[in-house]
């Protein structure tokens, strides 16, 4: 059992509480620590303890601004408070979806609705400077860090960077929207009545195609699932060029996640088996790349 005593002391020191509180850790979170704080009055809240992680492009001012805008857009819980290294949001009763539930025909239209609203409504509420998340540049940045670290993947990087250029050319010009950019199943939350979109660490302006590809690659979509996803989002079956760009972006999403994990092998202090995670993602990427090249 991890020792959270220092974290508990820090949370108790926040000038937010009007009486005794109870704190318990939440599972999940591999770029932050999450806790539920039960208050006698005002309901429960979630406290996220996390600093900037420039290696991964995570800057907390952007996360806070995105979370506030997402609440205003009706996608995410209310931000109660924020400060250096912490974010406090309203607690939601419910549970995250599983990958199987993400793929469910009953849930997919609800998820697509969330994504459309994220892409179009958040910019109406976002305040201040915002980041951009361009997966191909993220991959190039990670490659530089892996060379610096003498990563075990360093010998593969020239080939992977050449593939990255190939994928970027295939995607071509894009329409810019506001993306969530981290559609793991745990970031889709069901309170029993509706779905919520959580965790804005990687939020930023992007092409909506990345969120669609990221959702598919993170949740084991079949070819039929992917076709349904694209048709739901666009309101019509995808044209061949759109489908080809989606397949390229799916490869890029998997490669980005694999290199994220490879960088974390040497740079993260969080207790997580990054080596196994990297290896699994590299295998998924190679499978997707083979299918992309047909």
UniProtKB/TrEMBL annotation:
Write the record's keywords in alphabetical order, separated by commas.
Transferase
The source's superkingdom equals Bacteria
Q: Please provide one cellular component term from the Gene Ontology annotations of this protein.
A: cytoplasm
Q: Which CDD domains match?
A: ChoK-like
Does the record bear Repeat in its keywords?
no
- GO BP, one annotated term: phosphatidylethanolamine biosynthetic process
- This protein's name: Phosphotransferase
Q: Which SUPFAM superfamilies match?
A: Protein kinase-like (PK-like)
Write down the species: Segnochrobactrum spirostomi
Q: Per its UniProt record, what Pfam families does this chain match?
A: Choline_kinase
What Gene3D superfamilies does the record point to?
A: 3.90.1200.10, Phosphorylase Kinase, domain 1
Give one GO molecular function term: ethanolamine kinase activity
């Amino acid at each position: 059992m991890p020792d959270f005593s220092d974290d508990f002391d820090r949370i108790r020191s926040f000038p937010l509480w009007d009486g005794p509180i109870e704190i318990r850790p939440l599972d999940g979170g591999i770029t932050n620590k999450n806790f539920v704080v039960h208050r006698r009055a005002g309901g429960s809240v979630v406290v996220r303890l996390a600093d900037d992680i420039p290696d991964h492009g995570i800057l907390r001012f952007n996360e806070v601004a995105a979370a506030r805008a997402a609440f205003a857009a009706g996608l995410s819980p209310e931000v109660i408070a924020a400060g250096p290294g912490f974010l406090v949001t309203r607690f939601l009763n419910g549970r995250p979806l599983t990958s199987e539930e993400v793929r469910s025909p009953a849930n997919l239209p609800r998820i697509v609705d969330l994504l459309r609203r994220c892409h179009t409504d958040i910019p109406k509420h976002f305040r201040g400077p915002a980041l951009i998340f361009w997966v191909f540049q993220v991959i190039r940045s990670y490659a530089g860090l892996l060379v610096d670290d003498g990563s075990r993947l360093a010998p593969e990087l020239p080939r992977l960077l050449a593939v990255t250029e190939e994928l970027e050319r295939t995607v071509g010009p894009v329409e810019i929207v506001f993306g969530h950019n981290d559609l793991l199943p745990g970031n889709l939350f069901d309170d029993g009545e509706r779905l919520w979109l959580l965790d804005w660490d990687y939020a930023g302006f992007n092409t909506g195609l990345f969120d669609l590809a990221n959702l598919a690659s993170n949740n084991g979509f079949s070819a039929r699932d992917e076709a349904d996803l694209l048709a739901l989002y666009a309101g019509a079956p995808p044209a061949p060029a759109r489908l080809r760009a989606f397949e390229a972006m799916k490869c890029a999403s998997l490669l980005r996640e694999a290199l994220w994990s490879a960088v974390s092998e040497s740079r993260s202090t969080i207790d997580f088996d990054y080596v196994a995670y990297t290896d699994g993602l590299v295998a998924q990427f190679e499978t997707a790349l083979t299918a992309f090249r047909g």
